[in-house]
């Protein structure tokens, strides 16, 4: 394992890059450092968990294919640690790993980049996810707090509560729920949601499907019979305010 933890953390934050390919690690490190990040490198899943425990990162770039613990297990353990459950995760996946990619999203990964990828694109994705993940990043006023019955979202604090209980939402889950709450009654296609919430002009639309499913599990009384986030057949999804309990 290689780290550059001897220097002060970069103003942009710290990123843990986990990949067993030393060339990939080095290229990603150089691009992220140019963007102002402090980078920690790990070549195996166990190294990644030790590094994150020793010095929690602001974001983890995680390859799914690792020689010991696979990326899904690493993500599962990071998400299982209470103090680290909201750490953003950007997955690196190969073209043929759709099933694993969906599994990673179900575990709470916030974004993914498909190999071969542009290191510059990855750096931009990291910046986008971190910007959204940080409290107050999108300068919200108290008036921006939105409610739907017992459901309340505060974008300044990046918190969501249901019946007074705080919800454990990933960065993208929060963004998606915020978008729905601020656009009630309008049906959006998965493509439109990708563009508005993820900022992607193209991409795997199953990402939206997985995030909607996860949101339903957290805010619907009966996830299999959703009252808030409803499916509009042939179109996509619509948020129906005032129908949740």
Structural description of this entry:
Residues 1-10 and 137-142 have low confidence and may be disordered. The protein has two domains: 2-133, Response regulator (Rossmann fold, 3-Layer(aba) Sandwich); 142-239, Arc Repressor Mutant, subunit A (Orthogonal Bundle), CATH 1.10.10. With 245 residues, it is α/β, with parallel strands linked by helices. Helix content is 37%, strand content 21%. The protein has helices at 22-34, 45-54, 71-80, 98-106, 119-133, 171-181, 190-198, 206-219, and strands spanning 2-3, 14-18, 38-42, 59-63, 89-94, 111-115, 146-148, 151-154, 159-162, 165-166, 187-189, 229-232, 236-239. The protein is globular. α6 (171-181) packs across α7. A six-stranded mixed β-sheet has the order 1-3-2-4-5-6, sandwiched between helices. Strands 7-8-9-10 form a four-stranded antiparallel β-sheet, covered by helices on one side. The termini are far apart.
Write the layout of secondary structure elements.
Layout: E1 2-3, E2 14-18, H1 22-34, E3 38-42, H2 45-54, E4 59-63, H3 71-80, E5 89-94, H4 98-106, E6 111-115, H5 119-133, E7 146-148, E8 151-154, E9 159-162, E10 165-166, H6 171-181, E11 187-189, H7 190-198, H8 206-219, E12 229-232, E13 236-239
Parallel strand pairs: 2-3, 2-4, 4-5, 5-6
Antiparallel strand pairs: 1-3, 7-8, 8-9, 9-10, 11-13, 12-13
Helix pairs in contact: 1-5, 2-3, 6-7, 6-8
* Overall geometry: globular
**Helicity, as a percent range:** 25-40%
User: What distance lies between the first and last C-alpha atoms, to the nearest angstrom?
Assistant: 49 Å
pLDDT averaged over residues: 83
Query: Which residues form runs of ≥5 with pLDDT under 50?
Result: 1-10, 137-142
Protein name: Response regulator transcription factor
Pfam families: Response_reg (PF00072), Trans_reg_C (PF00486)
Keywords: DNA-binding, Phosphoprotein, Transcription, Transcription regulation
Organism: Prauserella alba
């Amino acid at each position: 394992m290689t780290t550059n933890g001897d220097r002060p953390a970069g103003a942009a934050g710290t990123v843990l890059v986990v990949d067993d390919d030393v060339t990939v690690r080095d290229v990603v490190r150089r691009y992220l450092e140019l963007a102002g990040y402090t980078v920690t490198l790990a070549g195996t899943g166990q190294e990644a968990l030790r590094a994150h425990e020793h010095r929690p990162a602001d974001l983890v770039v995680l390859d799914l294919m690792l020689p010991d613990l696979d990326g899904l297990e690493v993500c599962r353990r990071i998400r299982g640690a209470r103090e680290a459950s909201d750490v953003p995760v950007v997955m690196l996946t190969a073209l043929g790993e759709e099933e694993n990619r969906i599994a990673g999203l179900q575990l709470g990964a916030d974004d993914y980049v498909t190999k071969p990828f542009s290191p510059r694109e990855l750096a931009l994705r990291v910046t986008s996810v971190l910007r959204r993940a940080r409290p107050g990043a999108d300068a919200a006023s108290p008036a921006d707090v939105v409610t739907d019955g017992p459901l309340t979202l505060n974008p300044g604090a990046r918190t969501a509560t249901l019946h007074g209980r705080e919800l454990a939402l990933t960065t993208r889950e929060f963004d998606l729920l915020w978008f729905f709450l601020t656009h009630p009654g309008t049906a959006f296609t998965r493509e439109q949601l990708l563009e508005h919430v993820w900022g992607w002009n193209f991409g795997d639309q199953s990402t939206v499907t997985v995030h909607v499913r996860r949101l339903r599990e957290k805010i619907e009384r009966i996830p299999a019979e959703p009252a808030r986030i409803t499916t509009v057949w042939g179109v996509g999804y619509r948020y129906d305010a005032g129908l949740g309990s």
